[in-house]
């Protein structure tokens, strides 16, 4: 009888201790969740305040003349034609270089590369490169592309340095998208006689395409606002002309001279105007920031739409 009483008392004590521990854990979770929500609210409040202030200062300045005029010494006559055209051309080169190379590298590392120490070193370096400051890429491009290779301070060099900047992002996004595909899809493809390349091309890539494209567009959204590497390679702060048109009326109808043309981009134009003492130039900088923000949000919206459509198509 005494042992039974002791057993019941021990069990009751253990249950009481468990209740106390669970209560403490729940209180810690509640405190952590509340702290996280508070930090998120403060951060979002600051971000929304900055965006609202940008729109209040610059949105009224945006009109067709602002989008189609060149920069000028007079703020009321200044526009961003050369800046947004240069931004589009640089982003086109960046996409043409970073997306195919990043997807190919991600597929190789995830599906084809042997699991050894060399692959581990490459994977670690790819992950670390995603956190390297952008100014380092600008210095690399200045020393290698501009001085050593002699490519000059051109649209092509700007696209190349931004492609290097977002290449780790595209590689990591590709690997994560491929890794998320269930193993049963590979096994089913092998079961019907497909080899590794056929399995990758016809089954894995279509299923991973939403994640890959989303990662690529998110990387481009980061590149469109970069300033440090573009300044480092010598982007112009004032340019009143456009690069040669990529398409021409005469044979061969395609012109590549624009790749070697000097350029400017919208972040550089904002930097130029915000450094001026006149308040009217600050309004122009705010308007340029609004246009840049709209372009960035548009790219992210396209990424979300593409992911939604592709997932509906493949039934995910």
Automatic annotation (TrEMBL):
GO biological process, one term: phosphate ion transmembrane transport
GO molecular function terms noted in the UniProt entry: phosphate transmembrane transporter activity
Short name of any one Pfam family annotated for the protein: BPD_transp_1
Record's keyword annotation contains Cell membrane: yes
Parts of the chain that traverse the membrane: 30-56, 81-109, 129-148, 155-174, 227-245, 279-306
GO cellular component entries: plasma membrane
Signal sequence segment: none
InterPro entries xrefs: MetI-like, MetI-like_sf, Phosphate_PstA
Membrane-topology descriptor: Multi-pass membrane protein
Start and end residues of each ABC transmembrane type-1 domain: 84-303
Keywords assigned: Cell membrane, Membrane, Transmembrane, Transmembrane helix, Transport
Gene3D superfamilies, per database record: MetI-like (1.10.3720.10)
Cited CDD domains: TM_PBP2 (cd06261)
UniProt-annotated location(s): Cell inner membrane; Cell membrane
Family in the record: Belongs to the binding-protein-dependent transport system permease family. CysTW subfamily.
Protein known as: Phosphate transport system permease protein PstA
Source organism of the structure: Pseudochelatococcus contaminans
């Amino acid at each position: 009888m005494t042992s039974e009483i002791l057993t019941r008392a021990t069990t009751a004590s253990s249950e009481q201790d468990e209740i106390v521990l669970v209560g403490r854990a729940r209180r810690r979770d509640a405190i952590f969740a509340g702290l996280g929500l508070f930090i998120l609210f403060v951060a979002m409040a600051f971000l929304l305040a900055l965006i609202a202030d940008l729109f209040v200062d610059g949105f009224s300045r945006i009109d067709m003349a602002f989008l189609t005029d060149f920069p000028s010494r007079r703020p009321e006559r200044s526009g961003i034609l050369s800046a947004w055209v240069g931004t589009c051309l640089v982003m086109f080169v960046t996409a043409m270089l970073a997306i195919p190379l990043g997807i190919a590298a991600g597929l190789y590392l995830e599906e084809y590369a042997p699991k050894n120490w060399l692959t581990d070193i490459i994977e670690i370096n790819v992950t670390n490169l995603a956190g390297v400051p952008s100014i380092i890429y600008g210095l690399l491009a200045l020393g290698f592309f501009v001085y050593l290779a002699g490519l000059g301070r051109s649209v092509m060099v700007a696209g190349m340095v931004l492609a290097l900047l977002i290449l780790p992002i595209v590689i990591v996004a590709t690997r994560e998208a491929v890794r998320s595909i269930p193993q049963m899809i590979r096994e089913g493809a092998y079961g019907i006689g497909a080899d590794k390349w056929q399995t990758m091309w016809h089954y894995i890539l279509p299923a991973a395409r939403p994640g890959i494209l989303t990662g690529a567009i998110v990387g481009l959204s980061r590149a469109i606002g970069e300033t440090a590497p573009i300044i480092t390679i010598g982007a112009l702060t004032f340019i009143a002309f456009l690069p040669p048109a990529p398409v021409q009326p005469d044979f061969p109808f395609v012109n590549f001279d624009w790749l070697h043309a000097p350029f400017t981009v919208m972040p550089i134009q904002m930097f130029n105007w915000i450094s001026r003492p006149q308040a009217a130039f600050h309004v122009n900088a705010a308007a340029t920031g609004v246009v840049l923000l709209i372009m960035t949000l548009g790219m992210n919206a396209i990424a979300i739409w593409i992911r939604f459509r592709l997932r509906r198509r493949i039934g995910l």
